[in-house]
Amino acid sequence: MRMRHKYRKSSAFHCNAGSPCALLAVVWSLVACTLMVQFYCYTRHDDKVEHPIRLNHRPLTRELEEVEEENFQMPPPRGKRSPRAIKRRGPRRPPSAIDEFLDESSELRNFFFPDRRTAIDPFKEGNNSMYFYPGQQWLDTDGNPIQAHGGGLLYDENSETYYWYGENKDGPTYQAHSGGAARVDIIGVSCYSSSDLWTWKNEGVVLPGEEMNDTHDLYKLNVLERPKVIHNDKTGQYVMWMHIDDVNYTKASVGVAVSDSPSGPFEYLYSKRPHGFESRDMTIFKDDDGKAYLVYSSEDNSELHISSLTEDYLDISQPMRRILIGQHREAPALFKHQGVYYMVTSGCTGWAPNRALAHASESIMGPWETMGNPCVGGNRIFRMTTFFSQSTFVVPLPGLPNSFIFMADRWNPAELRDSRYVWLPLTVGGPVDEPLEYNFGFPVWSRVSVFWHRKWKLPDGWRIR
Ligand code: DGJ
């Protein structure tokens, strides 16, 4: 009978801990693990690992992904500047492109804010029908400039119609106090409807501001920003969440309103600080499983929080997660693609434009990773300023592979009512630009790309359903 050795030594490896052989084994295991992780990543995302501008096999979206340059010349220095612009940047520093953008007397004014002659007009467009012109005035079916800033879209399955909700800023711009940010009194939330995403009918102010009652959240001297609406399939209600604040942005709360119809009227319910935390720029997101989430800038805008909503979407619930801590991001616009969550955010520079960043996560609760600047085309300053605009929403385009519409605001702090809309094609595909924190630099996520176009339209064959 053979003796069984309880502590039989392996005949393959004769390694003592700490010996060079053990070290080699550890190194080889690490290499093997890394290769397995990489193999897993490539197989899971193999359809997305491609460069966004080499997508010739996708005839529907090829045009949207063309890289378009923008000839942008800074005007030569000149003597006379607006005193407000000089105060903003100091007398000695030469004006940057952003200073030019913010200077209402700049020679580039008409470049950034072209006048009404070039407006997108659903009744006068002829051959230009269905073309988006980022930054140009956009008229509704009554011929008035659309007032839906900081907004978002809802696709209503019941009526097979898109609804666009946003801030109505059609009042005078002023500063509440010297040195304070430009503002417009609360007029309310506007709503527009469309079946083609291009022709918009004004449905009116579906949540009006409050003229007289100065204790009301919606009192005209307060702040109502970034309204977003989702539909609750269980209750049948349309639920609006928005940023509610006082004139100095110290209330830092979210507000909730509800309606039985997408075109309102909405009944304002209440405001609160979610989980007791400050909440400024925000959005809401309804997932495929019907669960909904609130995403908000918190802790002095230094981080974002994501919180679940209750089943009726009328309140927040647990869990809540702190994400992008210390990254100082705002204007979150969240979307989902092939099971992965993506988000575009801006930096925090008031009404002035800055660089967008794209983030991704396997789970909505994180960990979220930052992938870099999604902007493609234009020129460097265009890309560093999100094409002189700030994210607000990303619209899914069912049936168009990997494609979305990126919705942004080109704020005009000198005349906020004349702020413009920058809608551009957004695609998901190709390797990311920046090394990723949690993945040892491996391309787990696909690149989010927002393509600059002076003029573009959705593919002719595209229909909502
Ligand atoms: C940046 C935010 O994204 C906007 O919604 C608005 O709050 C401005 N700041 C105000 O300066």
Q: What does this molecule look like?
A:
The protein has helices at residues 20-44, 59-62, 83-89, 97-102, 109-112, 380-384, and strands spanning 149-156, 161-168, 174-175, 182-183, 188-194, 201-208, 223-231, 238-245, 253-259, 267-272, 282-286, 292-298, 303-309, 316-323, 330-337, 340-346, 357-361, 369-372, 375-376, 390-396, 403-410, 420-428, 448-451. By secondary structure, the protein is mainly beta. It has a five-stranded mixed sheet. Strands 1-2-5-6 form a four-stranded antiparallel sheet, with no helix packed on it. β17 (357-361) and β18 (369-372) form a beta hairpin. The termini are far apart. Residues 1-15 and 37-57 have low confidence and may be disordered. Bound molecules: (2R,3S,4R,5S)-2-(hydroxymethyl)piperidine-3,4,5-triol. The chain crosses the membrane at residues 21-40.
